[in-house]
Amino acid sequence: MNYNNLRTKTVFDFCKDAALLEDVTGCTSKEDFIKDLPVVERARSFLDLAERTKNKALEAAVMREFKKELNEYLASFNE
Predict the structure, then answer these.
(1) Which positions ≥6 away from 61 have C-beta within 8 Å?
(2) Is the pTM of this model over 0.90?
């Protein structure tokens, strides 16, 4: 699977299981999900999907693509 350019994709591009997608995103459609979606939330949804599907390749790609945003997010808890 191609995990390049994750900033232009969502979990809806990698999963067709409607129940899992609704559980991960709280939505049933890609359009509802991406409306006003912060970048870090996009990354977190990818990580959630990767964890639930045990997809280490997706997890690694997300960590590379969103490293800066995830580090900033985690740092906000240390303030």
Answers:
(1) 3, 4, 6
(2) no
For the chain, how many residues are written?
Answer: 79
Which pLDDT band, with edges at 50, 70 and 90, does 51 fall under?
very high
Using CA atoms, how far apart are residues 22 and 60, in angstroms rounded to an integer? Answer: 23
Residue-wise pLDDT tens digits, 7-38:
999 999 999 999 999 999 999 999 999 988 89
CA distances from 6 to 11, 67, 78 (A): 9, 12, 27
Distance CA 43, CA 38 (A): 9
User: Both tokens of residue 75?
Assistant: 């740092």
Distance CA 68, CA 10 (A): 18
Q: What is the DSSP letter of 26?
A: S
